[in-house]
């Protein structure tokens, strides 16, 4: 078998990252036809198409996504090696891109990235999106890591999660009943909550499901004032509505510290799980490994 042509692989990598053949051709000072011919030769050597070409748009095939993982590692490490040869030192800074689920608790994100703020040699970018766009970004190597409170297995209609992604539980936050400070009921749940109005997470969330199961066991029907899927909105509703809310106390830790809200009592056996999702690779950047380790130590 012939050795892979790394010039062809480099052209493929640039097109996959940039997304437009025309832009890469201009940047590399090569004609579009010549660039297309190079990609065609790479596809013939690999024995599979790497792009789907529709209406002048290039989309990676499944095989293209796998090849991109290796190309990304090869040329990223190669760039660091060039820097080392030229400067005689390791790169001065490391830059990572982190995708954040759009309804994730901002307080959790703040805690997660806090080690990065203490490292002068590390820079980072946060990008908030929906889960589908985050996974697309991972596939296209826009992100090194994605933070979410949702597992992807239930959304994996193609059953590819075990081959494309690796998911790590980085933190588990207990869920509690939180309400206005100074108004905590004297009795335990049920007996003194009949006249309370409630702010609850959306019906499709794991927290809501667990809370409703608890209410069913207690034969209690909460009077719902408002519900929201977004943790930032739940925080505002808990702070401003005067109702009691069901959420992780970390979401409203500032309001608790300020004496605006207080924890009334925990919801038994109910947690919000936070996950870090990354594309499966042969090589994990040291900063990512250290960040995940630090998060587990603080969990």
* Domain module tally: 3
Number of helices: 11
CATH topology of the largest domain: D-Maltodextrin-Binding Protein, domain 2
Query: What number is the mean pLDDT?
Result: 83
Q: From the 3D coordinates, which CATH architecture of the largest domain would you assign?
A: 3-Layer(aba) Sandwich
Structural Rg: 24 Å
What are the secondary-structure elements, in order, as H or E? HHHEEHEHEHEHEEHEHEHEH
Largest sheet: 8 strands, mixed
Please explain how this structure is put together.
The chain has 299 residues and is of the alpha/beta class. The chain folds into 3 domains: 6-85, Winged helix-like DNA-binding domain superfamily/Winged helix DNA-binding domain (Arc Repressor Mutant, subunit A, Orthogonal Bundle), CATH 1.10.10.10; 92-171 and 275-298, Periplasmic binding protein-like II (D-Maltodextrin-Binding Protein, domain 2, 3-Layer(aba) Sandwich), CATH 3.40.190; 172-271, D-Maltodextrin-Binding Protein, domain 2, CATH 3.40.190.290. Helix content is 43%, strand content 26%. It has 11 helices and 10 strands. The protein has helices at 6-18, 21-28, 32-46, 62-87, 106-117, 131-139, 161-164, 206-218, 231-240, 253-257, 286-298; strands at residues 51-54, 57-60, 94-101, 122-129, 145-148, 165-180, 197-201, 223-228, 244-247, 261-279. Strand 1 (51-54) and strand 2 form a beta hairpin. The longest helix is centred in the first third of the chain and has 26 residues, at 62-87. 26% of the residues are buried.
């Amino acid at each position: 078998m012939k050795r892979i042509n790394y010039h062809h692989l480099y052209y493929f990598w640039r097109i996959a990252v940039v997304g437009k053949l025309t832009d890469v051709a201009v940047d590399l000072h090569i004609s579009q036809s010549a660039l297309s011919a190079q990609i065609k030769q790479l596809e013939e050597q690999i024995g599979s198409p790497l792009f789907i070409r529709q209406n002048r748009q290039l989309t990676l095939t499944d095989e293209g996504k796998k090849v991109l993982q290796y190309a990304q590692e090869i040329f990223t490490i190669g760039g660091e090696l060039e820097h080392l040869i030229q400067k005689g030192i390791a790169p001065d800074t490391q830059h990572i891109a982190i995708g954040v689920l759009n309804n994730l608790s901002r307080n959790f994100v703040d805690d997660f990235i806090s080690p990065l703020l203490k490292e002068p040699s590390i820079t980072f970018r946060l990008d908030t999106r929906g889960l589908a766009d985050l996974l697309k970004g991972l596939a296209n190597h826009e992100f090194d890591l994605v933070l979410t409170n949702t597992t992807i297995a239930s959304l994996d209609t193609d059953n590819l999660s075990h081959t494309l992604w690796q998911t790590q539980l980085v933190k588990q936050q207990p869920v509690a009943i939180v309400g206005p400070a100074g108004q905590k009921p004297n009795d335990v749940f049920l007996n003194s909550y009949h006249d309370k109005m409630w702010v609850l997470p959306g019906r499709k969330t794991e927290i809501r499901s667990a809370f409703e199961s608890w209410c069913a066991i207690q034969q209690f029907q909460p009077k719902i004032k408002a519900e929201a899927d977004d943790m930032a909105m739940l925080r505002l509703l808990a702070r401003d509505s005067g109702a009691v809310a069901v959420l992780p106390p970390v979401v409203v830790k500032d309001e608790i510290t300020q004496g605006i809200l207080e924890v009334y009592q925990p919801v038994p056996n109910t947690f919000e799980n936070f996950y870090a999702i990354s594309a499966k690779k042969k090589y994990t950047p040291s900063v990512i490994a250290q960040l995940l380790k630090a998060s587990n130590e603080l969990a």
